[in-house]
Each structure stands twice: as C-alpha cells, then as structure tokens.
Amino acid sequence: MTMVPLAAMILGAAFCLLAAIGMLRFPDIFTRAHAASMAGLTGVGLILAGAGIASGDLSVAAAVIVGIVFIALTAPVATHLLTRAALKSGVEPAAPTNIEK
C-alpha cells in the first residue's frame, strides 16, 4: 500500500475516534449529534478515499466517490432532523448549550 492511501485511512480513523470520543464526552444530544455528523463524515470520507486510491481501479474509485457524495448529502440532513425532533419533543439542552428557539 502506498503512503497516500495509508495516510488518508489513518487520518480518517483518527477523525472517527474523535467522533466517538465526542459522543461519549459531550453533555447532550445536540452537541453529540454535531460531533458524530462532522467528525464522522470526515473520517468515513477519508477512509473511503484511501480505499479508492489504494484499489487502483477506476470503477472502485467511481463507487467510492458516489459513496462519499451520498454520505455528505445525507448525514447533515439526518443529524438536523434528529436534533430538531429532540428539540420539538421537549428534550432540554444541557446548561452550556445555547439554542435559540
């Protein structure tokens, strides 16, 4: 495996680890959702990009690009809908979280 795909996969794994730590450490659903969507999206995108580069096959690279675009389009929308539903159902944010209604 060359250095570029390896570096992308390691960096992607680090972002996924940061997302997992954010899920454990943040106080409420609103901040946890932000950690999961932003760092998770970057991590998965880098891991997929590294796998696409490492494959060396154009069809695999095209499928990886489609996968990255799909995740980039659906993850923020899903996160927004989940946090909006939590807010509408009466889930109170933690004290340091500032949400304007």
General description of the model:
With 101 residues, this protein is mainly α. The chain has 3 helices and no strands. The chain has helices spanning 3-25, 29-55, 58-88. α1 (3-25) runs antiparallel to α2 (29-55) and α2 packs antiparallel against α3. The longest helix is centred in the C-terminal third of the chain and has 31 residues, at 58-88.
Give a short overview.
The protein is mainly α and 101 residues long. It has helices at 3-25, 29-55, 58-88.
Question: Topology of this protein?
Answer:
Layout: H1 3-25, H2 29-55, H3 58-88
Helix pairs in contact: 1-2, 2-3
The overall number of domains is 1
State the separation between the terminal residues, measured CA to CA: 50 Å
Strand share of the residues?
A: under 5%
Give helix and strand order, one letter per element, not per position. Answer: HHH
Which structural category do the helix and sheet elements fall into? mainly alpha
Instruction: Tally the helices.
Output: 3
Mean pLDDT figure: 90
The biggest sheet amounts to:
none
Helix content: over 70%
Uncertain regions: pLDDT < 50 for 5+ in a row?
Answer: none
What is the tally of beta strands?
A: 0
Please tell me what the overall shape is: elongated
Q: Nearest-angstrom radius of gyration?
A: 16 Å
Jot down its keywords.
101 residues; mainly alpha; 3 helices; 0% strand; elongated
